[in-house]
Design goal:
The protein is of the alpha/beta class. The chain has one domain: Alanine racemase (TIM Barrel). The chain is built from nine helices and eight strands. The mean pLDDT is 95.
């Protein structure tokens, strides 16, 4: 059994234990294997171990991997989890199941425009800066609430939920995960179709169990599956 396969099994066991402790169904939580900077053969190892959901952050790297002979045509569910600039949207739309990193109304509008232009539909998450750190992307929670009506009105795209990158401090991270869950509840109260707002993408290798306890439906794990960045 490969180290990646073993790591995936261990993460899944930990997700299940955290879900049970939180009184949740483990099947309600999806594991995104963050494959950015990792070569195609590592992704193929995870795929051969049974994993299907992968997250990429860099557009050119993603496009190259998607076309790589080791991965091309495989039933992989790709998510774009990095910060996405408006001028890159036309290259990613239609190639991923979910875009996690929309952090401005202007970017959402461009996503809508490109979806209409290409006769496609796109699902996305709104990135929220729950920590308030200036180095992180994302709307402030109050900005997200103010933008909600405009976001819901955009055609050919659907807001599916929220995403955040929490503080490195464990106690702060748990608090921020709870704040994101509360914000999603507030958005559902004003959404024309609240059933569409169901996703909370939060939690990474160092804090995913706390995220599960606070309602995460997607967790993004890279290092704990593939090893440190740069490790081949």
């Amino acid at each position: 059994m490969s180290s990646i396969s073993t790591a995936l099994q261990d993460i899944c066991r930990r997700i299940e234990a955290a879900a049970v402790e939180a009184g949740r169904e483990p099947s309600s939580i999806r594991l995104i294997a963050v494959s950015k900077t990792k070569p195609p053969h590592k992704i193929r190892e995870a795929f051969d171990a049974g994993h299907r959901l992968f997250g990429e952050s860099y557009l050119q790297e993603f496009l190259e991997k998607r076309a790589d002979p080791l991965l091309e045509g495989l039933p992989i569910e790709w998510h774009f989890i990095g910060h996405l600039q408006s001028n890159k949207i036309r290259s990613v739309i239609g190639k991923v199941s979910l875009i996690h990193g929309i952090d401005k109304i202007s970017t959402a509008r461009e996503l809508s425009r490109q979806a209409l232009r290409q006769n496609l539909h796109a699902n996305y998450l709104l990135e929220v800066n729950t920590s308030g750190e200036s180095t992180k992307y994302g709307m402030a929670p109050n900005e997200a609430l103010s933008a909600a009506e405009a976001l819901f009105a955009l055609p050919s795209i659907t807001l599916r939920g929220l995403m955040t990158i929490a503080s490195p401090d464990a106690a702060l991270a748990a608090k921020e995960f709870g704040e994101l869950r509360h914000l999603l509840e507030q958005l559902r109260e004003v959404a024309p179709h609240p059933e569409q707002l169901s996703e909370l993408s939060m939690g990474m290798s160092g804090d995913f169990e706390a995220a599960v306890m606070e309602g995460a439906t997607m967790i993004r794990i890279g290092t704990a599956i593939f090893g440190a960045r740069g490790a081949g």
